[in-house]
Amino acid sequence: MKNYTNHINSKVWLLAIVVVISIIVVAACTDKPSGFKPRAIGSPGELLVVMEDDHWNTCAGQELKALLKDEFPALPQEEAIFKKTRIAYKQFERHFRTYRNVLLVSIKEDESSNRVEYRRQEWAIGQSVAKVIARSPEELASLLKQKWPRIKGFFHQGDINSMADSYHKIYQPEAVMHVQNNYPFTMYFPKGFHLKKSEGHFSWFDAQRLGSQLGIFVYQCSLDSLRDFNAQTLLSFRNNLLRNQVPGENIGSFMTTEEHFPVSIKRTKFADRQWTELRGLWKVSGDFMGGPFIDYFYEDEENNQLVMLSGYVYAPAKPKKAIYMREVEAVLKTLEVN
Length: 338
Hints:
The protein has about 350 residues and is α+β, with helices and mostly antiparallel strands. The protein folds into two domains: about 45-165, no CATH class; about 170-335, Protein Transport Mog1p, Chain A (3-Layer(aba) Sandwich), CATH 3.40.1000.10. It is about 35% helix and about 30% strand. The protein has seven helices and 15 strands. The strands form three sheets. Strands 7, 8, 9, 10, 11, 12, 13 and 14 form an eight-stranded antiparallel sheet that branches. A five-stranded mixed sheet has the order 2-1-3-5-4, with helices on one face. A two-stranded antiparallel ribbon has the order 6-15. A hairpin with a 2-residue loop joins strand 8 (about 200-210) and strand 9 (about 210-220). InterPro entries: DUF4837 (IPR032286). This is DUF4837 family protein.
């Protein structure tokens, strides 16, 4: 009995020592800042503006309010590019610091210069933070107006990158495999996208949802089929392709570009390549269907190939379409050259 009791006591002492050591280790760790960062909260397109009440009511605040009304490009209905929430600096703590997009605006008279600082992953994973600092309300208003295109693009691209990263992790394997097997690149599609049509070097993917349809076109052909690389030529090329490959539900109907709405064109870069971007509205000739689209064209001169990536949205019952356009843009920008 004595030996048994001694054995129990030894176990108790050993357990006590382990507990004490664990407490010391935990206490030591809590004295150091944690490297853990939570995932950013909020949906793509949501923007948290941190600006003092006094400054919000100055000329700088008025300028920022006007800028925040900028519309998302090429939608059939007006929709602001950002859904904003505004708070003062004293409120900027706890969960507010983990917002997906944060715009910090401040006036500091003793600063040596006016500037905008851009940060990714500042307090959370997938977060974009822009800090706008100026010495007076007048200088702040001028700085905001001057830098707004870049600030706006910074937040938009952060949203697209975050969405594209998520598609790399959870994707529709059959759609990904089809692109890998038929093109010299890979694209990642979120769950729900399926191959609708494949003919030659043209592939059509779509995702049917309640009250909406998201579509992706992938096409590759010889550069010789394109005379010049300008807006008018690309639009003609696009319309010819859609007429031949994307029929409507009615006999003789087909998808085309809405010619009564301006189509924007610009140069952009992703996947280490320079692309030409088109944004506008599509319609179905011979039917009452339409919506927004985005196209990317790449001239692969080394291999004499033209690559066209296109995304479109059909959501007649949805008043807000920007979130869907962000989704198809993010799919296109998952492209990786094999």
